[in-house]
Specification:
With 392 residues, the protein is of the alpha/beta class. It contains 14 helices and 14 strands.
Length: 392
């Protein structure tokens, strides 16, 4: 017989979702009201303003899509692309490949710029791709590649797109509120993210922002957007109206309460302070991991502080270690994806989960699991190294 579901509490230190703040969980439980209720319309306006703060943009079309980050990605492509268009797509991990899928499903041509997994996108390869494909109208790349833990130079890549008269689509799913993301200063045209990473909100919403140039492209496209639900010309009537809102869909009201609370937390801390906290905790985690005898999979200059890719030592069973962490310590870390499956672990320090307590919990659990697998390591040395890095 079925009964109410009560999950075992976990510490979420994988690639997402991340631990959700108690404030955000509390917001979820508030009374549901209608999605066209004047109170909810006022909340929508506040959410837009808070998202503009987080994205560092004044773009009028800055909204949360009522679906996860993958829908944000699809929205970017279906609105900007028409059949026959050419798009330069950068791939240095799994999610660049998903961009390619979206391009091709729109009936457009993807010109691939490929770099090694764990390396950043090479700007010179992008310039060369534009020189060889002057008809390309869009550049698409992943700023913070969730599958590898590598960070690319988003500002330079957006500038290259502008140099060749193209618009840019930027995947910032793991970036938002964790590392600097200057949408307006960099001239990015469409940037999408997710709520379950550094915002420490529940999964299921995709913040997205469109520049005026992107909006103009959408308004002047030759045909209808192939997706009704993600058609920004329709969604703008609900999220973009100055007074009366046109019904488009029933927004996930309580999830929007949660997003609003998570954005308030970001603003209360301040973006610069959030970036500094993520970097400080990343430095401490790396110090501890290296003291365990482990090595990082990404060069220091390109590492994401919120998503740490760690090389799995030879002879160590990936699944056994992650299983031990989950079953014995209620701690989740992520497996490698694609070409890195079985080769790396992905340890998240995102949003609410990016704190000294989680660093120590992870090092203790990982050290214990490794020792039981026959790997010689010193957990006390790891904890000491992390504490020194934290200034404790």
């Amino acid at each position: 017989m079925s009964s109410s579901f009560f999950p075992t509490p976990r510490t979420l230190m994988g690639p997402g979702p991340s631990d959700v703040s108690p404030r955000v969980l509390g917001a979820l439980s508030r009374p549901t009201i209608g999605h066209l209720d004047p109170q909810f319309i006022a909340l929508m306006d506040d959410v837009k303003g808070l998202l503009q703060y987080a994205f560092q943009t004044e773009n009028a079309l800055t909204i949360p899509i009522s679906a996860p980050g993958s829908a944000g990605m699809e929205s970017a492509f279906v609105n900007l692309l028409s059949p026959g268009d050419t798009v330069i797509v950068c791939q240095n991990g799994v999610f660049g490949g998903r961009m390619r899928e979206n391009v091709e499903r729109c009936g457009a041509t993807a010109v691939m710029v490929e770099d090694a997994w764990g390396a950043p996108v090479d700007p010179e390869k992008v310039r060369e791709a534009f020189r060889k494909n002057p008809q390309a109208s869009v550049l698409a790349f992943v700023y913070a590649e969730t599958s590898t833990g590598a960070r690319s130079d988003a500002g330079t890549l957006c500038a290259i797109a502008k140099e060749f008269g193209a618009l840019s689509i930027v995947d910032a799913v793991t970036a938002l509120a964790g590392i600097d993301l200057q949408v307006d200063a960099w001239g990015a045209d469409v940037v999408y993210s997710g709520t379950q990473k550094c915002l420490s909100c529940v999964p299921g919403i995709s913040p997205i922002t469109f520049s005026p140039a992107a909006v103009e492209r959408i308004q002047n496209r030759p045909g209808k957007v192939q997706s009704w639900f993600l058609d920004m010309q329709l969604v703008m009537g609900y999220w973009g109206g100055d007074s009366k809102r046109a019904y488009h869909h029933t927004a996930p009201v309580n999830a929007m309460y949660a997003l609003h609370e998570s954005l308030l937390i970001v603003k209360e801390e301040g973006l610069e302070q959030s970036f500094a906290r993520h970097h400080r905790n990343h430095t401490a985690l790396v110090a501890g991991l290296e003291a365990l005898g482990l090595s990082m999979a990404v060069a220091a200059d390109y590492r994401l502080p919120q998503l740490n890719a760690v090389n799995i030592p030879d002879g160590i069973d990936d699944g056994a270690i992650r299983g031990a962490l989950l079953n014995d310590h209620n701690l989740e870390i992520g497996a490698g994806l694609g070409a890195l499956a079985g080769k790396t672990w992905r340890i998240g320090l995102m949003g609410h989960a990016s704190n000294p307590g989680n660093i120590k919990r992870c090092l203790t659990a990982l050290g214990s699991a490794l020792r039981r697998s026959g790997y010689a390591c010193d957990t006390e040395a790891a904890l000491t190294a992390a504490e020194i890095a934290l200034g404790e």
